[in-house]
Design goal:
- The protein has 101 residues and is mainly α.
- The radius of gyration is 19 Å and the shape is elongated.
Length: 101
């Protein structure tokens, strides 16, 4: 599913950048994309996918840390702890100013 969405987004981006239809067509596509992004079903699906991704990442971290143990670099362990603290305290942005949802 993720690959399909990436492909569709690439096709749309390529069309928008390559089209010679002018500003009117661009504004029409932009409005359609905004309506799609505001669709409750799309938003719920994106939030569910983000939540599942965080769950899988946590499971993967535990699986790797069980096998790696003390050999994990301190910088990586500290970064994971920092991200977990932010998630539990409800801080929605990371170091780059992007949302985790």
């Amino acid at each position: 599913m993720r690959y399909r969405l990436t492909f569709v987004a690439g096709v749309v981006l390529g069309y928008v950048l390559g089209t010679r239809a002018g500003r009117e067509r661009y504004e029409q596509l932009k409005k359609s994309a905004q309506q799609l992004a505001q669709n409750p079903a799309v938003r719920n699906t994106a939030e569910t996918a983000a939540h599942q991704g965080r769950e899988f990442a946590g499971k993967a971290y535990h699986a790797v840390s069980d096998k790696v143990g003390d050999r994990m670099p301190d910088s990586v362990a500290q970064r994971v702890r920092t991200l977990r603290e932010r998630a539990t305290h409800g801080q929605a942005e990371d170091d780059w100013g992007t949302s985790n949802t």
